[in-house]
TrEMBL record:
Protein localization: Cell membrane
Source superkingdom: Bacteria
Pfam families (UniProt xref): MFS_1
Main location, first listed in the record: membrane
Coiled coil ranges: none
Keywords: Membrane, Transmembrane, Transmembrane helix
Protein name: MFS transporter
Topology relative to the membrane: Multi-pass membrane protein
Transmembrane segments: 20-44, 50-70, 82-102, 108-131, 143-165, 177-196, 224-248, 254-274, 286-305, 311-334, 355-373, 379-399
Length: 408
């Protein structure tokens, strides 16, 4: 259904289905925040090797991309709700595998990367298709704001609780308890998903549609693809590095939990305010300000990588990243909703969006692995972080003409 033809009562407010989807998202990110925040630390403590973490993340991103593309057929021609539940279940399998492997987990980084990539691919492909179906151009910024708020609340509470447990319990007991709690939350996430309505889709899955679209001259999806790839470039590297740097320079899981608590508290306020008051007409300047500040807050690290400077970075990024991600996400999904054809082929367009993000994530990890292989000097690492961290400016350059309401 073209977005302009959706019922009026759905355009501005969030209905029961959107709130259910927010709950599913909240449970999923809670389970991952509890364990995922410390997964890199867990692997690092046993391997003491940046490259191992880099290869784990690279494998995750590669198999995530492959899963997005292949599972697109199942989501469109089968049942996307089953795909969502399988993604959640495989996430549970991932943490169960980590529990079974224990201290030997880093020796099986290839297996863990594959499982993680499959779980993320299945879940987020189906989630994003459902997200497109239950939202519209009128309430997408609000939904994304609430998603950010929930993510920030989870980011405040979950890592702090994990850090407290891990730091208070001897040996690996704290990690094992945290991983087991995540398993239980994934089960709850599956249960809630049964209340989501499965909207049937028409037509067959067009395997090569993303590639055909990219071949067209003048298509708006070329700059959008570049913008998404730039977003993924930053995500992958900073997702690995920041939490690990906090742990390395403090030697404490509790301090990492405190770092997550403080930065997520700032993010909570910022996401709430941005989601509530950002208007579509303000997207271009908001995104520009967000990208510039997200880059500038990396500079303090050049004066010393310590907890204080990492906290300055974390607070600055948390404060301004909503100005970047909310306009970006909303504008891309608004583009999918501009015409009947793109709405009917929403799965293929979501797949293309995820492929673009993963092109950036894979590129980012290749840059990261190459950098730490050549040198691990602080100056070299900081230069790499500044280079990768400035990628959102490129996103704005590509997206600036696609953010305004008249382009929807």
């Amino acid at each position: 259904m073209h977005e302009s033809h959706k019922p009026a009562h759905h355009r501005g407010s969030l209905d029961k289905q959107t709130w259910l989807l927010l709950i599913v998202n909240g449970l999923y990110i809670t389970a991952n925040a509890l364990s995922g925040t410390f997964l890199g630390v867990y692997i690092w403590k046993e391997s003491n090797n940046f490259t191992v973490l880099g290869w784990f993340t690279l494998l995750t991103n590669v198999f995530m991309a492959v899963t997005f593309w292949i599972a697109g057929n199942w989501v469109k021609e089968g049942n996307k709700m089953i795909c969502l539940r399988i993604g959640t279940a495989v996430s549970a399998v991932f943490y169960a595998t980590v529990l079974l492997l224990g201290k030997n987990a880093f020796h099986y980084i290839w297996l863990l990367g594959i499982i993680q990539g499959l779980s993320i691919g299945f879940f987020w492909l189906s989630f994003n298709v459902i997200y497109f179906e239950v939202t519209n151009a009128g309430n997408r910024d609000r939904f994304n704001g609430w998603t950010g708020v929930m993510g920030s609340v989870v980011g405040m509470i979950a890592p702090w609780c994990s850090g407290y447990l891990i730091s208070r319990l001897a040996d690996e007991k704290g990690y094992r308890i945290v991983f087991m709690i995540s398993l239980g939350i994934f089960v709850a996430c599956v249960a809630v998903s049964f209340f989501l309505r499965n909207r049937r889709m028409e037509g067959n899955y067009h395997w090569l549609l993303p590639f055909r679209i990219m071949k067209k001259r003048g298509t708006p999806w070329r700059p959008i693809f570049g913008a998404l790839a730039a977003q993924g470039l930053r995500e992958s590297v900073f997702g690995v590095m920041i939490g690990l740097l906090v742990f390395i320079h403090t030697g404490s899981e509790m301090q990492l939990g405190n770092f997550a608590l403080i930065t997520s508290a700032v993010g909570f306020v910022s996401f709430y305010a941005t989601g509530r008051w950002l208007k579509p007409a303000w997207r271009p300047p908001a995104m520009l300000v967000g990208t510039i500040v997200m880059t500038l807050v990396i500079i303090p690290l050049f004066f010393g990588v310590n907890y204080t400077n990492l906290l300055i970075f974390g607070i600055g990024a948390a404060l301004f990243i909503p100005l970047y991600t909310i306009p970006m996400t909303s504008a891309v999904f608004d583009m999918i909703g501009t015409a009947e054809d793109s709405v009917k082929e929403r799965v293929e367009y979501v797949v293309m969006r995820e492929l673009a993000l993963n092109v950036g994530r894979i590129t980012g990890m290749i840059i990261f692995i190459t950098t730490v292989y050549v040198s691990r000097e602080p100056l070299v690492i900081n230069c790499m972080l500044l280079f990768v961290g400035s990628a959102p400016i490129l996103s704005w350059v590509f997206m600036r003409k696609r953010l305004l309401p008249q382009h929807r």
